[in-house]
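User: Show me a protein chain along with its predicted structure.
Assistant: Here is one chain, sequence first, then structure tokens.
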Amino acid sequence: MTSKEAIKMTVVAGTASAAAAQVDTAAVDAAFETLKTYDWGADRGLLNPIDQAIIATHGDAAARKALEKRLVDALAGGISRSAQDYVCRKLRVIGTSQSVEALAALLPAEQTSHIARYALERLPDEKAVDAMRDALPKVRGKLKSGLIGSLGVRRDAKSVTAIAGFLGDSDIEAARAAAQSLGLIGTPAAAGELSKFAGKASADMKMPVADARLVCAERLLADGNQSEAVALYKALQGDDQPGRVRAAALKGMLAATKK
């Protein structure tokens, strides 16, 4: 090991130790105790020690993991809706695979589905995506549209078939969310599902599907699937498409052929 590497390791270790020293353990313990009975209208400042601990433990994986476990345990402990909201927001920042099960349990409930989904959407672990996909058949209405949207944000290729099944849904919001998500996923399979549905789309789904196909073509091109992108742009230049769609498709086609 060079002297430079040794100095770097010392600095890193010193930074981690300093971060740990900045955590007021007693204050954090008190904040977690408060969390058990915390509700709307309570003094939000009482939870600040948890916020500060999250900041102070940045770069300290072991300390972050321990803090995450305490949040997960709190979430599973029957806390109020307000406290659940707080914990989910914190797990959105520091959550890992150990948070998935507790967050997934909140997905079917109308009051907690959205905030749990926002947290899962940010978790880098593949289990978070699996949890949202598995919850899809268990929800309705806005919860269904939300989950479809999150799977699109995560570009979950495994969800393409399931999401495509909602394109013709009687719930127009779910149908539009499905089109948008397939566009965001932007794989050849997603493009195929959008194109297959485009010919039979109802009047109120034609524009959402056209817009989704444009987004899908952009994603395909960005991912190096030039031929698939070009094919999609060509299909969107037909006389059956609105002027703005044909113009966007032409612009996309020119960009694709330059690559």
